[in-house]
Amino acid sequence: xxxxxxxxxxxxPHTVRKxxxxxxxxxxxxxxxxDCIAARMFAPGEALTQGFAEAVSHSSSPETxxxxxxxxxxxxxxxxxxxxxxxxxLLLVFRGPDAVNRIRKLTGETGAEFQxxxxxxxxxxxxxxxxxxxxxxxxxxxxxxxxAEEVREHLLLWTAFAxxxxxxxxxxxxxxGEIDKPVERTLALIKPDxxxxxxxxxxxxxxxxxxxxxxxxxxxxxxxxxxEAERFYGPVLHALRESFKDTFARELGDLIEEHYGAELSDxxxxxxxxxxxxxxxxxxxxxxxxxMAGATSADVENETERQAPGTAPLLLLxxxxxxxxxxxxxxxxxxxxxRAAIGTVRREFGESVMINAGHASDSPENAxxxxxxxxxxxxxxTPFIQDWYSGDFGSKQRLVNRxxxxxxxxxx
Length: 412
Hints:
By secondary structure, this protein is α+β, with helices and mostly antiparallel strands. It has 18 helices and ten strands.
């Protein structure tokens, strides 16, 4: 892995609730130049919250500020589901040279005087004091590790609770004005064309979706396999094969008449379309599969490669709330970016009918099927961290036991 290292950023419940996830993600990627290699939603339980607060209280930040941050975590992270309380945080993991220092500088100091625009905390954090300098309100916006050793310790802790406290979150309260309305879930994809190089677009697309006012309950960075792409776009194949029939009946007929001077009947044109249309429809579908997975079945040698993660990164998102499907579809825009409404994802970021920046489920039934197929709650974080810190991860169970003991001691 050379000189590369890992860094993380945890977007706080306040940041997630205020739908600032997109704009912060866009700055983290574009200004750091790092690769975002994992994303996972969490609703931290008491053991994870107490363990993380304890770890932060021993960080390398100045004493006053690390204890203030630890108190913030204990107060604002922990969930009490029996009280209808589900605080959500988003964990992002980055990889690259000098990653820890880059993310730390971009975030800003824990207790610096917040000024406009220089760092993420300048823009989104708050620290309000009284006349004597006592803290009245503190919101850090995001939490990061200060050293590679801290990052290692904190990531091992979070992955220890990745299954129990993270993934596709349940029982997230709706906003006050929509409590009594029927709730839907929908899947949205931020497609691979947004990840060609470290830039603002993934976060900006997420920012557009955030205008829906829906709850983000799952976020997963994913590499779609060829097999997944073929299943996901399987229903599209028949439609493409049919739609190209009329196109090629017209275009091939015109070409033959112009080149050879022959006049074709309507029936002869129809036969041309019946023959060439399905062939070209499948070719177009294979281009779509390659765009989403980086390859097609023709490019791989065996079933193992067909099932393996592809080379094209994308971001899986699940939103929940009343009319979730129609709200996200409206913000996505028409399949053809040139015809999409101004301000939609596809109008702002799409290039063509295929390279059109995003996808969203078109019905609650299809949303359920697509969520089942792509499994946005799957834990990719733990195996990655296990591979990266292979010498440390064997102590996972001891780590869980230590945190559990810490929590029970504090309760006692």
